[in-house]
Amino acid sequence: MSFNLFEKILDPSQIVSGQELESRYHHIWHMDEPLKAICLLMPASTDEVSSIMKICYEHNLPVVVHGGLTNLVGSTETYGNEVVISTERLNSIEEIDDSSRTMTVQSGVILEHIHEAAANNDLLFPLNFGARGSAQIGGIISTNAGGLRVLKYGMTRQLILGLEAVMVDGTIISSMKKIIKDNSAYDVKQLFIGSEGTLGIVTKAILKLEEAPKSRNAAYIGFNNYENVVAFLKYMDSNLAGKLSGFELIWRN
Ligand SMILES: Cc1cc2nc3c(=O)[nH]c(=O)nc-3n(C[C@H](O)[C@H](O)[C@H](O)COP(=O)(O)OP(=O)(O)OC[C@H]3O[C@@H](n4cnc5c(N)ncnc54)[C@H](O)[C@@H]3O)c2cc1C
């Protein structure tokens, strides 16, 4: 099946095929292994993702989405007969709404860029982990990442207010809401969070931000047993106004 199918909907600069695929890879830890795929496509809008998916659906082509390629389970590997959709050009921060404390982003925005944009507005997007310089928000949503501050702020699931996605046949579904209190029937976006791209391609999201904390304190504490760890966490939760945001447990016997 030829990559020419996509030439009528994308600019040539958005299509990587043939020998050019050798400059691409399927994971940041395998950058020396050339990508095997029919082609790699770089859509820049939701409509382009939708058009690609319509063609793939019509021609029964398997699709694998590439975000920041930092997953730890090999889920972005391909073997040669797949169309790869890279979200790297879906990289716009569309809005930061200071009053609703939300950020509207395309799914290819890198986590560190989200942190910087929030900080420039005295706000915080609390999700944080080692791969923040490469991981994209679409991949983060698709893996329901947790990270270093999960105790206080929750998993990705708790940090997404709105979502837009493209289904396998190209249908665009949108639930781009900014509200916290939303009791309108099914919460469809939750199906996509943690689904690893199996239900569709996340194209946009509305992120829930927090006020940036005025101060931070770090402590290194040793415990004799696990019961004391639990007692400590309960104590901190009930006595510390700002609550404990991060907690790394290093267990030594
Ligand atoms: C150094 C390091 C530290 C980490 N620390 C933590 C941690 O503390 N806690 C934690 O929970 N995780 C951690 N992770 C894992 C991290 O959660 C994932 O690597 C990250 O969320 C994946 O984002 P990505 O953009 O790289 O996605 P990718 O690796 O590109 O993709 C991940 C999966 O999502 C799919 N996908 C990507 N984008 C989309 C999209 N737009 N729509 C639909 N499907 C999509 C892909 O096909 C693939 O199945 C760590 C990883 C590394 C390398």
Verbal overview:
The protein is an alpha+beta fold and 253 residues long. The chain folds into 2 domains: 3-86, Uridine Diphospho-n-acetylenolpyruvylglucosamine Reductase, domain 2; 93-211, Uridine Diphospho-n-acetylenolpyruvylglucosamine Reductase, domain 3. 20% of the residues lie in helices and 18% in strands. The chain is built from 6 helices and 11 strands. The strands form 3 sheets. The chain has a 5-stranded antiparallel sheet. A 4-stranded mixed sheet has the order 1-2-4-3, covered by helices on one side. The protein has a two-stranded antiparallel sheet with strand order 7-11. The chain starts with 14 loop residues before the first strand and ends in a 14-residue tail after the last helix. Flavin-adenine dinucleotide binds next to strand 3, helix 3 and strand 10.
Q: Which tags fit this structure?
A:
single chain, 253 residues, alpha+beta, Uridine Diphospho-n-acetylenolpyruvylglucosamine Reductase, domain 2, Uridine Diphospho-n-acetylenolpyruvylglucosamine Reductase, domain 3, 2 domains, five-stranded antiparallel β-sheet, four-stranded mixed β-sheet, 6 helices, binds flavin-adenine dinucleotide
